[in-house]
Each structure stands twice: as structure tokens, then as C-alpha cells.
Predict the 3D structure of the following.
Amino acid sequence: MSTFSAPKGTYDLLPPDSATYLAVREAMAAPLRRAGYGYAETPGFENVELFSRGVGESTDIVTKEMYTLTTKGGDHLALRPEGTASVLRAALQAHLHRAGNLPVKLWYSGSFYRYERPQAGRYRHFSQVGAEAIGAEDPALDAELIILAADSYRALGLTGVRLLLNSLGDRECRPAYRAALQEFLRALDLDEDTRARIEINPLRVLDDKRESVQRQLTGAPMMRDHLCQACKEYHERVRELLRAADIAFEDDPKLVRGLDYYTRTTFEFVHGGLGSQSALGGGGRYDGLSEMIGGPALPSVGWGLGVDRTVLALRSEGIELDLPAATEVFAVPLGEEAARTLFSVVTGLRRSGIAADLAYGGKGLKAAMKAANRSGARYALVAGERDLAEGVIQLKDLGSGEQRPVPVEALVTEVTGLLARPGTPNG
């Protein structure tokens, strides 16, 4: 037993579970690639001010949840708690917005870190796939990203996903709403921290999950009743495009999400099988974020989808993904000469695109065949001195138990053909 274990609130991702996580990431990434999004990767840590400016000083992420550190050189850094600010910073630094082809479409996948109380669906280290469309203000772009996310959940077979939708207005109509909301909230019986939040970002109070707060919010002014005409028309166009794409959604006037940079379109995907944490992922439009972090005006929209929580949703619905076999062919050598020959055969199979493995360590026939069965392989290759003297290797179907000799020089072609037939693992 090791002296060490994974830190509290984290987990190790190992086979066979890791195959499901990889499949979820691929299901989320595939629609994005088809829609012209290019892959981006940013450092696991950034300047603290990138998040305090962009995510917002009043958010729980900045005030309570960031892992921060000071380097020997005095730099104040934070492990990234979310992806949007980092990806936008990278795009600005590389001047991608100046290439003349807006929007800049980027997607990413990686680990993020927040200091939170660990519970089902909430970890201190978690995995997301995200997408950002930078530099264009168009309701079709908002709808595109929502549809791409919804399509990834459909591809995974999830049926219990619900889409919540709202508009947070813009710099024209939000100030009047902010004032009306502040006036309402100041009259409530709230704790000191929440009262301070009223002055910094009152919309965040609507997102407070405590029953004692939610109970007092009955009758609170809603943004939808204060939207300017331009924001109303923009939001209705998003809704029309979602309906046309057969994407069901629910209007949620209290949806603000946990980040300060959102404007206009805001959305969240939720699922009832995650315990106390219902959100699978979400996002929205963030037209002012570029300016907040020192860039030019670049209206943008994006989302982040939780890989961990999506896996929990799959389990809650009893969905087992159709994963490719980790091993299709398993070689069982009996003796040193057979080990050398089968090692070459396995190498040839791998180069032909076949997932192949070998019994290492000089196992006997019984132990090696047990390893072959445990591997999940469709076929076993068995060879001893007599087989090699005859120039053949025994090809065994591990499902039916049928076995027949195949000439060594024809083996790769024979196995490749078998696995390519309809009804076989690669067919």
C-alpha cells in the first residue's frame, strides 16, 4: 500500500473508467471540429488578475475558490478556475483577432481547479471541454454553440438533459435593472457578505442557492422585464433558431451563472441525476470581457461542459457507451522463439491499425490464456515450437473457441480481414 493518496477532492482516472472519459471528451469535441473550431491549449496557471478582472471580484470563484501561489520572483499566480478568460487572453496575445476572419473559433479540453467542499459531482480538480467564438455579435453564433453542446449530449445517448435559457441584457439596459434590483435587495434580511455583494454585482444574489435567500427573492425584479428592444429582439432570434433546430429549452429568469462577464444570452445544461449539483455545463455571451482584460472590443460567446458530471449523468441513466476494444488480438507465445516471432506479428498488426497485445513475462499457457480472456480480445494467437516448425500460428476465436492454423506470413492480412467484416469489432 502506498504511503500517499490523491489529495482531498481529487481523483485518479485509470482504465477501464478512463475510456469512458475519453469517449465523452471526443463526443463533445467532434461537433466543434465539424463547425470549424480549432484546438487551443493554455497554461494550467495564469496571472491572478486575469481572473479577478474577468471572472469578477465578487464571485465565489475569486473570493473563496482560487488556488493561488506566489513564485520566487514575486509573481502572483492562480491555477485556472475556468477556461474562457485564459483562452481569450491567449487569442489576444497571439493577435488572432487581427487575421481578418472573425469570429475566431476555438475549443479546448483540460483540467481546472477550485477550492470547494468536495461532494458528488463537485471536485477540486475537474475536467471540462470548452468552446469560444471570439469577435462577432450574432444570435446565430449563440444558437450554434448551444446546438453543438446539445448535440454532444444527444450523441452520448443522454435523455435527461434540460437546457435553461435567459438574457442578462447589455450595457444599455442593465444599469436600470441593476438599480431596481439593488433597491429590492437592500430591503431584505441578508447577511453581511450578501449585502456587500448587492453593491458589487446584485445579479449574483439571484444565483444564491440558500433557501433562506431564495425564499426572500419572491417578487424580485427580473431582467426580462427590463430588456431594451435590441436585447429582446436578439434573445428572440436565439430562441427561434433553437426551435428550428429542434432544441428544447426552458426560460429561467433567475439564471445568471457564477461569472460576472456574461451579457445577453446565458444558458445552462442541467440533469437530475447528479445529486446536489445539477449543472452539467453552460455558458453565454461575454461582449465586454476582452475590454476588461485590456483588449479591444470583441463581442464573444462560449461555453464549458463538465466531463466528470457528464459521466455521472451517463451512470445515472444506466448508459454504457459503445467503446472500441482496448485489445482486439492477444498473442500467447510458448517459448523464447515463439515470443520473438509473435512480437514481430504483434508489431505488424499494430502498424496495420489493429489493437494487439502480448503475454509478457514468460507466462505458461493457462495463465497466458486467462490474460487473453481478461483483455477482451476477439482473437488469440497461440504458437509453440511445433507450430513454428510448420510455419504456422494458431488463430483462436475467443468467443466460439474455434481454432485453426494460419501461415505466419499470411497472419496480419488474415486477422485484418476478419476484424473488418460486418458484425466484427471493427466492422
In short: The two ends are 43 Å apart (CA to CA).
